[in-house]
Amino acid sequence: MDKLEVTGGVPLAGRVRVSGAKNAALPLMAASILADGPLTLANVPRLGDLRTMGRLLRHMGGQADLHPPGPDGALAEEARLDLRSLTRPEAPHELVKTMRASALVLGPLLARHGQARVSLPGGCAIGVRPIDLHLKALALMGAEFDLTGGDVVGRAPAGGLRGAEIRFETVTVTGTENVMMAAVLARGRTVIANAAREPEVTDTALALQAMGARIAGLDTDELVIDGVDHLSGAAYRVMPDRIEAGTLLAAVALCGGRAVLLDAPCEEIAAARSKFAAAGVKLERAVVGGQEALTVESPGGRELKALDVVTSPHPGFPTDMQAQFMALATVARGVSLITETIFENRFMHVSELRRLGADIDLQGRTAVVKGVDRLRGAPLTASDLRASASLLLAALAAEGRSDLFRVYHLDRGYDRLDEKLNALGARIARVKDA
Ligand code: UD1
Predict the structure, then answer these.
(1) Measured between alpha carbons, how far is 73 from 374 in angstroms, rounded to an integer?
(2) What is the layout of strands, in order, in the sheet containing 214-216?
(3) Is the pTM for the entire model greater than 0.85?
(4) How confident is the model at residue 434 (pLDDT cuts 50, 70, 90)?
(5) Which of 129, 133, 241, 344 maximizes ligand 1 atoms within 8 Å of its Cβ, making it the mutation to test the pocket?
(6) Rounded Cα gap, residues 261 and 352, in angstroms
């Protein structure tokens, strides 16, 4: 298991490119199951979860190759997905247990193959995270489910799934994607009310449209989908990762300095942008080499102002940025209130941040963070993906050396975040097999 040795206290400067979005690439890879031809995805980030999704698609009998786009190609990969040879419509436990998003194959399998066997995702570190809402919605489309040996075994009715009126009682991102992917090949019209509006849902819808799907209501909380008989292959570029962009911005905000993020999504991070502005971080939109870019300038650490954050579904403040903003709050001047409303157990970074000297009091769903004069390096253990990013950022702001263990959490969802931060001047050494 790798560990990261971080020497803190260095301001950041330079240029870095934002990778493609993990949470868009995952449903897009699953969407390949629906196509009658190859789906080629560009701008695919190099990270653990997408390798797992590739393994899952191959396990089912499909072809799923992830490889660099060529010698002059940037850092991203290209995914060539051809699932016409799919013979085993099942997602086994050993793959689902490492990645809950494996459940994203359920809707496509039922729509395209009429059956699916998907291991039920267990409790996961950041909360219960069931898939009951996915199952209820697919049942409204005619699917029947049994639970056998920890697997959800689903079957579409003879003649295939049918369109339905669905209203999610809670906004669910992968639930919306799963049902949308099922509906594009269902008979008749499906309406998904209280749909998630996350940009990755829209990106998935745009790719499905490129494959021939009929979906209206993009970017709203009501999606209207008219089923078609078949979908073709397509070529599609995955949107840039707004959470990675936000994490890099938070690193510069915390360490101080000036940097340019190339291919940065701007509209998609509006909620985080306004919080950065409130903390005293300057962000400006720019165009560099014809691409969207963001410049960030920050006085860093103690010069930041305290900030209040309440997570909520898009366009609200994303839960996937909560831990990184808590790292900012640990040294910002004043008292910050950080409230998590999406997941019930997403404060596991708190005890580790305290080891660096952070002053955090947990009051139910709210963390009360009093900015301290300085953090001091310490050994740290990552507990989940975004918590590991938070700890890395705090370690960069701390005096002296911190060792970050269980880096595989970070590598599951970030495309070499340590290398990107080092390109901005950070001092992070990766030690293999620690
Ligand atoms: C997705 C993202 C994840 C992000 C989360 C919230 C992917 C691959 N992952 O996760 O990074 O943190 O959205 O923005 O895109 N719920 C139920 N029953 C269900 C489904 C969800 O009770 O069937 C609850 C969850 O426990 C949670 C809330 O609904 O409290 C929202 O979860 P959801 O949006 O589904 O998260 P994911 O799609 O798993």
Answers:
(1) 41
(2) 165-167, 189-193, 222-226, 214-216
(3) yes
(4) low
(5) 129
(6) 28
